[in-house]
Fold Probable endonuclease LCL3.
Amino acid sequence: MPSWISPPPPPPDHPLIRSYNSLKTRISDLTSLPPSAIDILLPSITAATATLTLVYVYRNFLKRYPDSNSLPPQFFRRKGLYGKVVSVGDADNFRLFHTPGGRWTGWGWLRQIPEGRKMLKGQTIHIRIAGVDAPEGAHFGKPSQPHSSESLSYLSNLLTSHNVRAHLLRRDQYERVVCSVSMKRNGILGLLGFKHDVGLLMLKAGMAQVYEGTYGIEFGKRQGMEERYRAAEEEARVKKVGIWGLKGKYESPGQYKARFGGKEGPFTPSNAIADKGKESTGEKVKGKRGVSSSSAAVKLGVETRRRKRKATAAVTVTTVSKVVKRRKSDK
């Protein structure tokens, strides 16, 4: 080499480079792969793993879901959504604008939450608070229940423009997402991570009662929440606060819905389940035309066999006529 050409500098002695060379040597000893192949495979595997990890983190923690239909089914009973309450429509449900990551991902200072009904259309998740039932407001020409406006005002003042975490449980018949909802406490307890359960607050204040549906009742994943809910309701009943201080005979929201023909629980109504049970035993169902399921099955079988016989006879006649014509043409 000419004297005027300086030799290339030695590779830097960095701890990461030493670790990489050591790992490459171990892999080469275990797999008998040449170092050149390891130089290709190892960065490729590392890049693929990092990409999959980023995709997983984005989908599970950073992706914003605009409405209930966009929520993946595997999220229910496993995930919670953090967001801002933009409106309260009734005394036991509200609209949530999902803000994944909260202020850590820029919501509220870099990324603004839209305001106004037009801007929020199709961008919010309709949340139904699990385990509680509040007095019904006036809907579709039905009168409102006593104390419905007070319960609505209480929930509006409690949640509107505040951040909450909604733990997903299931969808109901109105395409709402039933959730156990929690919000940060005020003061030092809030800084330490302590939270309020919104349903429990409503029960203690007498603004709602424990949900009394015969099925589809949810109290969240935490053990003992049903007992806490019922104890809070009983305490409010004894103190006669909220709905328990009303004069006259008390009508629960469930009784109100039943009186006006409303449905409780999941989408499948109870009378449809009863009808299905009657049909399975061959009993006639009141209000339905026709015969029982057993006789209908017999008639269907007879009709099917009759059609098969007709089809077989038609095929036989066609085949015979073709054979006769062929013989005549041969002669």
